[in-house]
């Protein structure tokens, strides 16, 4: 079973964050700049939430609010699960399904060390399955 640590070794540990008091316009700008769909929301060194394009659409655009005047803290999602480096892919998928989220912050104690998405998980599972297929193919060919 593949672990979060193995996924991060493949994709990297880069995490884009934003302060809870930043404007939603700034958050959307950061997401566009980095071509990502979500930012981890911080207060100092503490992870306090997640803001995604979904929160923007539902918390600003659909309500006719101004993204310039709305703070990230006003629309961020706070009920996000966090995972550790040793968490396996099955547990991550279960959390993503249960919480209906697409991103999981990776923590060591209280420190943010990465972010994995459902896309990262799918890619890792596909890589793991391909290794198994290749191993079985070699076994049959030499058998």
From TrEMBL:
Residues 76-131 form the CBS domain. SMART domains: CBS (SM00116). The keyword Cell division does not apply. It comes from the Bacteria. SUPFAM superfamilies: CBS-domain pair. This is CBS domain-containing protein. It holds the Pfam family CBS. Gene3D superfamilies: CBS-domain. It comes from Thiohalocapsa marina. Transmembrane segments: none annotated. Keywords: CBS domain. InterPro entries: CBS_dom (IPR000644), CBS_dom_sf (IPR046342), CBSX3_CBS_dom (IPR044725), Diverse_CBS-Domain (IPR051257).
């Amino acid at each position: 079973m593949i672990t979060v640590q193995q996924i991060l070794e493949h994709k990297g540990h880069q995490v884009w964050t934003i302060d809870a008091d930043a404007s939603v316009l700034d958050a959307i700008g950061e997401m566009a700049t980095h071509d990502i769909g979500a930012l981890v929301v911080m207060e100092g060194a503490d992870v306090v939430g997640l803001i995604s394009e979904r929160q923007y659409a539902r918390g600003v655009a659909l309500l006719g609010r101004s993204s310039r005047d709305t703070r990230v803290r006003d629309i961020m999602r706070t009920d996000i699960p966090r995972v550790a480096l040793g968490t396996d892919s099955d547990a991550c998928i279960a959390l993503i399904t249960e919480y209906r989220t697409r991103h999981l912050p990776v923590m060591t104690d209280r420190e943010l060390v990465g972010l994995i998405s459902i896309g990262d998980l799918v890619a890792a599972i596909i890589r793991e399955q391909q290794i198994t297929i290749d191993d079985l193919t070699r076994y049959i060919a030499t058998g």
